[in-house]
Design a protein that fits this description.
heterotetramer; A mainly alpha; B alpha+beta; C alpha/beta; D alpha/beta; A: mainly alpha
Amino acid sequence: MLGNFGYIGIFLILSLGFAILLILLPPLLRLVGIVPKKPNPVKTSTYECGMEPVGTSWIQFKVQYYFFALLFVAFDIQVVFIYPWAATINQLKLFGLVEMIAFFLILIIGFVYAWRKGVLVWK
Amino acid sequence: MFKTEPIMINFGPQHPSTHGVFRMRITFDGERILDLEPVFGYLHRGIEKLGESKTYAQIVPYTDRLDYLASMTNNHAYVLAVEKLAGVKVPERAEYLRVIMAELMRIASHLMTVGFLLNEMGAFMTPLLYMWREREKILDLFEMVCGQRLTYNYMRVGGVSQDIPDEFMPALRRFIDEMPGFIDEYEQLLAENEILLARTKGVGILPPEKAINCSISGPVLRASGVKWDIRRADPYSIYHRFDFEIPTCQNGDAYDRYRMRILEMRQSVRIIEQAMAETPDGEIRTKVPAMLRPPKGEAYGHIEGPKGELGFYLVSDGSPNPYRFHIRAPALINLTMFRDLCIGNLLADALIILGSIDICMGEVDR
Amino acid sequence: MERPYDSNELDAAEGAEIEALRQACKEPYPDPVQWLDEDIERSVLVSSVDYIIDWGRRFSLWPVNCGLACCAFEMIGLAASRFDISRFGMELFRASPRQADLMLVAGTLTWKMAPALKRIYDQMPEPKWVVAMGSCAISGGPFRDSYSVVNGVNLILPVDVYIPGCPPRPEALMHGLILLHRKIGKETFLKKR
Amino acid sequence: MTTPLPGEDVAKRIGEHLPDAVTDFDETAVFIRDQDVLDVARFLKEAPGLEFDYVTSITAVDYREHFEVVYHLTSIKNNHSIVLKTRCHQRDNPRVPSVVSLWQGADFQEREVYDLMGIAFDGHPNLKRMFLWQGFPGYPLRKDHQSGV
């Protein structure tokens, strides 16, 4: 009888194993000769619609991009918390629902604040 | 706030939303466009030079490959110019067949314009596949008449190459009966779609006097409120016999250019309906020598193509091939004010403006 | 409007690159059927591992969309709902060459476009195949004696399958792609190493 | 119906305004000296009865001993059209004043004529090769250019 943490352990091993396998697969296949290896200087150059890129992309760009990323991360974390909640919704009867609504409200306040400040509108 | 530096990115020849191999060097400050430099020539095949060493009949296939989305109207424009130069009379039946084919081609070309415009707006492939379904029906009609799907080579100096088979008229009848229903379907799906409204309303506004000054033609000009359509302003062929109106919109933004295509499709259906009813029997081509030698002189014939005023300027020195063969490409000239419309807008708007102008690189680069 | 680049200088550089490529590409690339050693070409023994790998590659070819001219619309017609090529697992036309393994050159290649096309081909990961669609891509087609057209894409790239037609009908294009599938099916790896 | 104005009347009107600009005319076209193109064009654009506010097409023809630049002008207001032609005789460096300051539509068409025929337009904001690449030998649409080079 493995107990709960046993299952989590197996799950951890499987997911890590799968991730590592994916990372090691191309070099492995290259060794065996299935993936052809023909290095080519142009192959590693940046793709810009078939043209040579001009200038560097290491420039001072607008700080607004950062706000988009920030809002995305906030709502991405929210989704991460929704999955386990949705999975166990029937155990946590009414309490779970109220809890989730409160969680939503907190995030919506942040979103409305960002909206009011006009952060997402590209100036 | 913080100082930002501009960066130049190539919207190069190989890009999904540049309608072929059109290239732009865009200078950005974040998402805002500071400057845009169009670069042409990636599909320049030198058709005008090749035309000078071909006879008048051999040039017709070249005109198919000019605006490859509207080959039938290219043939029509070229053939009208040569008939004006050589003074050739065209039998009645051929005139009616030409008008039917030209208007069918206009519908197919407008379908492609709206389809790809929505493709760029993010409705990836769905509206395009809907509109491609109608285009396949039109291509079947063309295939019935001249055996080809894209480069028809259907019209000849003095008439048309082949007569229509018997099953053409019933098939055209079926298509004409269904088409308004499909256009309503598009209107219902698209006209009030808030994404479409948000992305195109007030984007790329082209004032009428600037449009005239930039010698814009076609739906783009009429979307800015200028009522100028060659079929009414300078009627060629038998367009004076049909009654259809020239739709115009008022504020000349991308949404109006989209609506212009929908309205023009309805008018084209009306023209085809009238032309079908009055098509007489009889000759489909007057006898014209293969090595046609038009008299010395020049002629400029123009028609209202789906993209705008498509003109052919032919100079003849009496020999079987033209001394000079110039094509007035509406798509190239419609791009004159593209740079001014894009500066100050966001990148996403620039692609919508390009899509609403609707260029076809075969005609732009020739 | 201050531009972070000088357009004349860029034009001159690109012009020089085009001119260099034009002088360099005089005779066509050999068609890549040579990767099969001559002696085993006739009796190609494809082991089961090869068979599986070829089967996987054959039916998941993603073309990079380099539609240049009229043939592009027959290619899109093929991807549309009537002549559906997603039955062969090819419905995704990738815009970036990084995620594509088939270059379907559809249309007239001009000398000004040639360096761009060659760069896109080089930026595609191995294994990659090239299909020359339409008589313009095969030999310059109706524009063969023009001053600015490359007389055949095989001057620039090694081409696997040539599909004649101007433009070829979607059925002809499909037949060409099936030929390519058959060609991919004969590739072997383990024996070569 | 876009009525093509007879060359004679337009030539007479231009003659009153710019005496020695018109060199010749025939029933549809007016021939003018190449250095007066801009003044004649401004007159045609602003003259009360003419108002040619739309340049339909600008092209050039190589008649071996001279070049001919052809302007098709249209007036959308009065729905009439005229053809303006100028001849430039020097073959090595033909120059014609540009009309981009009057009609922005002439921008790409003049660049195309410069690129394929080699006629330079003075005063054009961005006169560069348009279709061909820098370093392309010669001008392809000239009669003495052997194609396929």
